[in-house]
Design brief:
423 residues; alpha/beta; Archaeosine Trna-guanine Transglycosylase, Chain: A, domain 4; Rossmann fold; seven-stranded mixed beta sheet; six-stranded mixed beta sheet
Length: 423
């Protein structure tokens, strides 16, 4: 079924909006170091690395990068409002950036995720920005709903093209727009766009449902964090399910209970979900209610605790309250390089607090979503914290990105998770 696209009317509504490719490209030359990075297919060009540009340009214009000998290096989307001034689309060989080009990129991304359909999963990341060759653009799928999230206003002049590609390649019922905080202000003031608006298709209810490995979850794609759900931890949740049988499980930073629900299906004897967001905990309770046809979930003892994670762990250790499996999946601790040292200390403190409520012979699951903290640094930090606590760690597994969150450049690798038996 196909709906009349609302976006076709946007030209009349938005004075600066254009659905066609800009007619005058910006000619760019870079510093030697930036030029070397582009030659390595790095998708970001920062403002300070540009040594020459032919003219100012507007968001969404195409910037063509040449080396000092005037040889073509790359081309990308121009963003005058971001420190990342160019998001590179095409490397090494010139190309016409048109609907056919975009459609090829999106189709390639969709095919990469084809195996997920056989896993009874219809909620996943369909396009992972830079890592799928479309920098600053994320598309998540929740059953028949697509959520398009922008991290740069440079994509706005290309909306019509992207929508037509998605209409051709998918069978969505609604296409929802989400924008990062800095883009939402620009989108609203300059283009009349609203975060959470329906770009194409039917209006939707705030809460929708999708399947992940056969489990039903609710999602709020209009107001929820990111695009409504943390899809990147799907494989790690499945790993927890295999380890949970017969164990008491603590899920800290539980959000809407993803790890908790998997643990319950894995026959955990008790599951405790802790989060500072009461609305997220309410969603966790509802997610359990949607899956009562699973006998182990229906029989599970699931409790939710509203509170700060660090305070809960300190309080539980004093009681003492112990668990057989502790999951620590905090939000990003390091958003820039100046926060790296503090972030490492926070991870180590969190490890030690987690060990304070973990039974001998229990399992620690600890994750990081901070791209500024490399995998070796994170795993070493956790290992040192365990050693400092006087306990012995036997690693079960180290995991990284799932198939729908591929890694295409160094900064694209952000997720890492440790599974370890703690004596």
């Amino acid at each position: 079924m196909r709906f009349s696209p609302i976006i076709d009317d946007m030209n009349a509504q938005l004075p600066k909006y254009s659905s066609s490719q800009p007619t005058r490209n910006i000619s760019i030359r870079l510093s030697p170091n930036a030029e070397r990075m582009v030659k390595k297919n790095h998708p970001w060009v920062f403002e300070g690395s540009i040594v020459h540009q032919s003219h100012q340009g507007e968001a969404g214009d195409l910037a063509v990068i040449f080396d000092k000998k005037r040889n073509f290096l790359a081309l990308g989307l121009w963003d005058p409002d971001s420190p990342i001034r160019i998001r590179v689309l095409q490397f090494q060989k010139p190309a016409e950036i048109n609907q056919e080009w975009f459609q090829h990129k999106i189709q390639k991304a969709i095919l990469l995720r084809a195996a997920l359909i056989d896993q009874d999963t219809n909620g996943y990341r369909m396009v992972h920005g830079e890592n799928d060759g479309l920098p600053g653009l994320v598309i998540d799928r929740y059953a028949s709903i697509l959520v398009l999230k922008l991290y740069t206003s440079a994509w706005i002049p290309h909306f019509s093209t992207i929508v037509r590609c998605l209409q051709s390649l998918t069978d969505y019922q609604s296409l929802i727009l989400r924008m990062s905080r800095n883009i939402a202000a620009i989108g609203g003031s300059q283009y009349g766009l609203q975060d959470g608006m329906v770009l194409d298709g039917l209006n939707i209810d705030e809460k929708l449902f999708f399947k992940e490995n056969g489990l039903i979850f609710e999602v709020d794609p209009i107001h929820g964090h990111k695009t409504g759900f943390y899809l990147d931890q799907r494989d790690n949740r499945a790993r927890v399910e295999k380890l949970a049988e017969g164990k008491s499980v603590l899920n800290v930073f539980a959000y809407s209970g993803g790890f908790s629900l998997y643990a319950a299906r894995g026959k955990a004897i008790a599951v405790t979900s802790v989060d500072l967001n009461q609305h997220a905990l309410d969603a966790a309770i509802r997610n359990f209610s949607y899956n009562q046809d699973h006998q182990s979930i229906a029989a599970s003892n699931h409790q939710v605790v509203h509170g700060d994670a660090f305070e809960f762990l300190e309080s539980a250790a004093r009681k003492p309250q112990k668990f057989d499996l502790v999951i620590l999946d905090p939000p990003m601790f390091a958003q820039n390089k100046n926060q790296i040292d503090k972030a490492i200390l926070n991870y180590q403190r969190l490890t030690q607090l987690g060990l304070g409520v973990l039974n001998p012979g229990g399992i620690l699951v600890q994750a990081s979503c901070s791209s500024r903290i490399s995998s070796p640094v994170f795993f070493e930090a956790v290992s040192k914290a365990v050693e400092k606590s006087g306990r012995k760690m036997n690693e079960i597994e180290r995991s990284g990105h799932a198939i729908d969150h591929p890694i295409g450049f160094p900064e694209g690798e952000y997720l890492k998770c440790l599974f370890a038996l703690i004596e």
